[in-house]
Amino acid sequence: MPLPIRAHLVRHGRPLVVRDRPAATWELDPAGFDDVWALRDRLPHGATWFCSPEPKAVETAQLLTDGQVGILEGLAELRRPDAWDDAYDLTAARAFAVPAAAAAPGWESLEELRGRLRTALLPLRRTMAGEDVVLIGHGIAWTVLEADLAGRPPSVEAWRSSTMPDLRTVSLPADPHA
Predict the structure, then answer these.
(1) DSSP string over the chain
(2) Are 110 and 25 contacting, i.e. CB atoms less than 8 angstroms apart?
(3) Does the N terminus or the C terminus of the chain have fewer Cβ atoms within 10 A?
(4) Which SUPFAM superfamilies does its entry note (predicted)?
């Protein structure tokens, strides 16, 4: 049985919210750079790095490492409409309440997100057994991934307890068919 991958899940730093732009295009708030830099010493040297394509994740990676970082499209946050949502927290809570359904028109379901994450991580699971990997992404995505790995439903409380930035380390099983 191949060794699991030690995955260091970094949630991006605090974004600079621009209400008339989609959240997927937001950049980091420079006032939060110190919080991101504080994670540097907690991450393993020699790890392989990947991040979501969203600017706030890419910028977080740039603050954390001088090395190369691969972009994995599948690590993007839960897909939702581009318009600002004053009820975002409530809509996200509905997503957690019924993971198989879209919480609102245009929202990806948490089950769809889970499948997208599994697909995105499969190549790593096939080739990186026993290695350290740093993955930089988003709060809902990491909450769904952690729940999937633990074999339990995703929890809105776990999502709400995550900070920006945040770091959690999980064991990502290697693909037994590799």
Answers:
(1) -PPPEEEEEEEP--B---TTS-GGG--B-GGGHHHHHTTGGGSPTT-EEEE-SSHHHHHHHHHH-SS--EE-GGGSPPP--SS--TTHHHHHHHHHHSTTS-SSTTPPPHHHHHHHHHHHHHHHHHH-TT-EEEEEE-HHHHHHHHHHHHTS---HHHHHH--SSEEEEEEEPPPTT-
(2) no
(3) N
(4) Phosphoglycerate mutase-like
Whole-number percent of the chain with pLDDT over 90: 93
pLDDT at 119 over 70: yes
User: What homologous superfamily is domain 5-79+87-172 in, according to CATH?
Assistant: Phosphoglycerate mutase-like (3.40.50.1240)
84: pLDDT strictly greater than 90: no
Taking residues 145-164, what's their average pLDDT?
Answer: 97
pLDDT at 82: 87
